[in-house]
Amino acid sequence: MYDYLVVGSGLFGSVFACEAKKYGKKVLVIDKRPNIAGNVYTQEIEGINVHMYGAHIFHTNLKHVWEYVNQFSEFNRFTNSPVANYHGELYSLPFNMYTFNKMWGVVAPEEAAAKIEEQKSKAGITEPQNLEEQAISLVGTDIYEKLIKGYTEKQWGRPCNELPAFIIKRLPVRLTFDNNYFNALYQGIPIGGYTKMVANMLQDIEVQLNVDYLENKAELDQVATKVVYTGPIDAYFDYQLGALEYRSVRFENEILNKVNFQGNAAVNYTDSETPWTRIIEHKWFEFGKDKNGNDLPKTVISREYSSEWNVGDEPYYPVNDEKNSKLYEEYRSLSEKESQVIFGGRLGEYKYYDMDAVIDSALKLAEKELV
Ligand code: FAD
Ligand code: UDP
């Protein structure tokens, strides 16, 4: 008999399990995948830690979260600065003075600000109601057309004027020559890979892989007093109110017999014709070196193709638009009646959480439950 059955060995489940163990609780972690770590799972291929479920760059402003993760892994100094490729024209991301200079030839920040203002007022937007209007208000029509529209519509499979404005507000807009993708005090990649970091969280905790909770629910509910469920909330209720929408991603991995494919960890293809959204070259998360500090002779790249999610696919991004948010609220009401089950994480709470927010949320739950 366990105090907690934790369903899912992603960051939410692993942090909660680690804390519960610290407080003397007996914990069993299960995952339906053959590996731990959920979406941050990395696998070593040709000496390179490949991010198997998409590139993950750890960044946070939360000092306690940074200190927390540093107990389980040392982090390197990687700073994310993706490049946008629009029909072979390369631009610096996020939107900063390098981007504005390349787009318009402007040199002074004031000129860039004036150009954005001119394009924004021409478009007649006062209060942005959707992603398209929000983007044009932030960076003007040229950047919207070349660097946002195509990428966003591929990523979300919906027109920009039907998407919520908040998605684009994730990206900084700067009138400085700073191409750090994040406004975060702390940033880096765990040395040795995320899987090692999560394995350290789960040290001395019983973990069973290839076990699907929903397929064995009646039996598994008998083994613990409480369940922490980090799978999709709608799947838990057998989609009885209808399926929530997610975006899925297909990764096409390739090992190349060359040292350097694109010279950067991430290149976004922002036109609408290229079928993939971005290409990740994993070795650059660790500066092209193996764990002994030697240069790597080969490289591994992943092309990411975004697609609509169907029941049975791997859900990645919750579509937090109005319709889905309403449906989620209905599922949340149902979940409140499950007194022995706690729903958490990106899928359990149907929330576009970054890693640091998921960890913070798991720590808050642990404090509420265990202290
Ligand atoms: P998950 O990692 O999804 O873990 C849930 C686990 O539950 C999975 O292992 C799953 O197999 C298991 N599970 C589900 N159902 C069942 C079941 N029925 N039975 C048993 N097990 C089950 N965040 C950042 O901060 N920086 C980034 O750069 C970044 N990049 C991202 C890129 C992509 C492509 C995606 C999709 C997300 C990215 N994120 C990033 C967000 C980050 O992945 C999440 O915040 C975090 O991994 C969520 O952790 P979680 O534990 O909630 O969910
Ligand atoms: N985005 C864009 N062009 C880019 C990169 C991002 O238009 O080159 C938009 C897109 O709508 C995306 C949003 O900005 O969904 C947020 O980007 P972010 O990189 O934060 O998305 P993530 O993949 O981390 O969820």
Largest sheet data: 7 strands, mixed
List the ions, cofactors and other small molecules found in this model: flavin-adenine dinucleotide, uridine-5'-diphosphate
Number of strands: 16
Strand order of the largest sheet: 7-6-12-13-14-11-15
Q: What is the global morphology?
A: globular
Number of helices: 11
Structural class determined from secondary elements: alpha/beta
Helix-strand pattern: EHEEEEHEEHHHEHEHEHEEEEEHEHH
Distance linking N and C termini = 21 Å
> What is the helix content?
25-40%
Poorly predicted runs are none
Strand content: 15-25%
Radius of gyration: 22 Å
Look at the structure and give the mean pLDDT: 97
Q: What does this 3D model show about the protein?
A:
This protein has 371 residues and is an alpha/beta fold. It has a 7-stranded mixed β-sheet with strand order 7-6-12-13-14-11-15. The protein has a 5-stranded parallel β-sheet with strand order 9-2-1-10-16, with helices on one face. A hairpin with a 2-residue loop joins strand 3 and strand 4. The longest helix has 26 residues. Bound molecules: flavin-adenine dinucleotide (FAD) and uridine-5'-diphosphate. Flavin-adenine dinucleotide (FAD) binds next to helix 1, helix 10 and helix 11.
Structure summarized in a few sentences:
Helix content is 33%, strand content 20%.
For this entry, give a set of tags:
371 residues, alpha/beta, 5-stranded parallel sheet, globular, binds uridine-5'-diphosphate, 7-stranded mixed sheet
Any chance you could write out the topology, listing elements then pairs?
Elements: E1 2-7, H1 11-22, E2 27-30, E3 42-45, E4 48-51, E5 58-60, H2 63-70, E6 83-86, E7 89-92, H3 97-104, H4 109-123, H5 131-156, E8 186-188, H6 194-201, E9 206-208, H7 217-221, E10 224-229, H8 233-236, E11 246-256, E12 266-269, E13 278-281, E14 299-308, E15 317-318, H9 322-336, E16 341-343, H10 345-348, H11 355-370
Parallel strand pairs: 1-2, 1-10, 2-9, 6-12, 10-16
Antiparallel strand pairs: 3-4, 5-8, 6-7, 11-14, 11-15, 12-13, 13-14
Helix pairs in contact: 1-11, 4-5
Bound molecules: flavin-adenine dinucleotide and uridine-5'-diphosphate.
